[in-house]
Amino acid sequence: MTGVLGALVTSSVTAPAPVPDGPPQGIGASVPAADAAAKTQGTFPYAADLWAEGLLWAAVLRSPHPHARIVSIDTATAAAMPGVHAVVTHADVPGDAAHGRRVADRPVFASDVVRHHGEPIAAVAADHPDTARLAAAAIAVEYEVLEPVTDPELAFSAEPLHPDGNLIRHIPLRFGDPEVTGEVVVEGLYRIGRQDPAPIGAEAGLAVPRPDGGVEIYCASTDPHADRDLAAACFALEPERVKIVVTGVPGAMGDREDSGVQLPLGLLALRTGHPVKLAATREESFLSHAHRHPTLLRYRHHADAEGKLVKVEAQILMDAGAYADSSSDALAAAVAFACGPYVVPHAFVEGWVVRTNNPPSGHVRGEGAMQVCAAYEGQMDKLAARLGIDPAELRMRNIMATGDILPTGQTVTCPAPVAELLAAVRDFPLPALPKDDPEEEWLLPGGLEGAGEPGAVRRGVGYGVGMVHMLGAEGADEVSTATVKVSGSVATVICAAVETGQGFATLARQIVQEVLGITDVYVAPVDTDQPPCGPAAHGRHTWVSGGAVERAARMVRTQLLQPLAAQFGMSTELLTIADGKITSYDGVLSTTVAEALDGKELWATAQCRPHPTEPLDETGQGDAFVGIAFCAVRAVVDVDVELGSVRVVEMAVAQDVGRVLNPAQAHARIEAGLTQGLGAALTENLRTSAGQVRRPDFSGYALPTSLDAPDIRIVKLVEERDVVAPFGAKAISAVPVVTSPAAIASAVRAATGRPVNRLPIRPQAAVAVPTGA
What we know:
- GO terms for molecular function: iron ion binding; oxidoreductase activity.
- InterPro entries: Ald_Oxase/Xan_DH_a/b, Ald_Oxase/Xan_DH_a/b_sf, Ald_Oxase/xanthine_DH-like, AldOxase/xan_DH_MoCoBD1, AldOxase/xan_DH_MoCoBD2, AldOxase/xan_DH_Mopterin-bd_sf.
- Pfam families: Ald_Xan_dh_C, MoCoBD_1, MoCoBD_2.
- This is Molybdopterin-dependent oxidoreductase.
- It is a single chain.
- By secondary structure, the protein is an alpha+beta fold.
- The protein folds into three domains: about 170 residues, Aldehyde Oxidoreductase, domain 3, CATH 3.90.1170.50; about 325 residues, 2-Layer Sandwich (Aldehyde Oxidoreductase, domain 4); about 130 residues, Aldehyde oxidase/xanthine dehydrogenase, molybdopterin binding domain (Aldehyde Oxidoreductase, domain 4, 2-Layer Sandwich), CATH 3.30.365.
- The protein has 16 helices and 31 strands.
- It has a seven-stranded mixed β-sheet with strand order 3-7-1-14-11-12-13, with helices on both faces.
- Helix 8 packs parallel to helix 9, helix 12 runs parallel beside helix 13 and helix 15 crosses helix 16.
- The chain is globular, with a radius of gyration of 27 Å.
């Protein structure tokens, strides 16, 4: 049974892509994704598609309250229902009752108190999904409803919501002289909403019991070894008796780090001795996984009369929801980047992240950096307006470059071509103005059926300049391992780096093609029998796992070339491999890779570990980041200043990419990031009322559609290679998400004259104030 499932998963991710005549290959080519055809044809199997003989279905009972004490749980009625095989609660967890990637503070099932709407209480396994759902609903839970703490500002004085207290982390950053002041001072208060990752596919998984008393879990994990270790601790099993097999990942921007599927599934499979499958509804997905941290930011910028920044003061308060998750990391990024990619000689930032009874927050692309970017760019617009300086020019006067120092005391040693990026978008031609023509009403904010009038539309142009860190931070051990094998004319890559849509599987093929000149490259499916590679976040796998693949491929290359070099009395550096052929610099040697192998199998395993970082100290100082990526966006918007409706006409972007490894893939990732940022700017906010999630579905959570997407102009990709990164490449996906909301807000300010200090932008914030009002 397990072997059949393994074969199914393998077929979904390892079949080589069809190779047309003269296919592009190697670094710098637009190599098509190996799984592209299967995904577009609808034949690519995800976890929700898996099946096994004797399959049972799981359902989870979740709390209807954001905060309540559990008086009693009665499972007798549910357990007695025909078709029900098992009901599990906190009492049935044999190992660690709590879990968490950074802090083990989240219970597998709530036992004495529930801390957020949708928290798991119990799980059921039955022979039909409807039976499982009915049985879960039949579990009788008596609650004593408690007053929820939903305002993070009140969390400091509220009764502790958790034994660890309400304060998760406080970072006081001190840089420079606190007594310094500027000739011009501007202040602002900013609020960032709760963006949901809203993956294409909701969470799902399949757990299969093993003959040795262990369990195999098939799911869309983005960090399978961490999930395995969490599950093993929960199940009271040795890690080698728990195996995570990664299935197709239907979108991942942080939500796939949640263990809310794997743990109930594994417990039920172990209890029943049957394979158990769970496929979450969209409502369950909204309630269970992590969201972007809602954030309150207070800023005071000091500048001289010429607009040069003198000092930045800020207070940053992040809402973690009920549990810690990756909130400490998000706060570190927010505090470190609170001044943006600008030279600030004096900075004083207070950052806090606290527990509340709101939905859980965690890792979402650009966490921490996105929230502060919206705030510091709002401050730059205010400063430009106060001084009467063009907003782009004000930014240019303060822009950061390589060699400058962050407020954390860390020197920016990587390429930082921020001025070049800003100049590129500033100088790019603006789009044409819309015509006052009824036949082109679709150009108006609100679309074809909108109520707007052309005479009420105002155009605005705004800028956003942002930055993100790459890889983990503050001492995280970033290491990845890869094996490359060559047999005949086929190369195989074995690496536990999960393909989440960021293109790692394609990149791995390109690396091997580049180094070994072999066209047919097979990337093995990921499971925990392979050495760990860490999570798929912050561009890690492009850098660390890609580096490991490159090193392993170069070791195989040396094994392949050394006998030939020795035979002809030359060094291996004088031999080249291209298009499956090995040639010497003088043309004396010319043979194929297959002939050189002569039936042998060559293989090598290598690791990649970037230089170490350090935690921020008690004053927010430290070399916390391996590398930084930058981006500039110019947004053009049309705003109906009577209705407050906004249409983003165009976003022009210039980005610091280090080196373009796959042009088509790079463009797609940038466009996707800008569109996600568009949602954060205009529509996406998971709304709550007293901690209760309102309408947790796509009728209540508004994602931007293709009709909302603007023209995207990738004006410039600066390829200034980072010498410490494999291939010199930088992370691509996150920094457009970070920067585009700030640019859109800036453009709406320019169109309306309003402060626009909240994301997403509400209609009332985009209504222009009448002259003289």
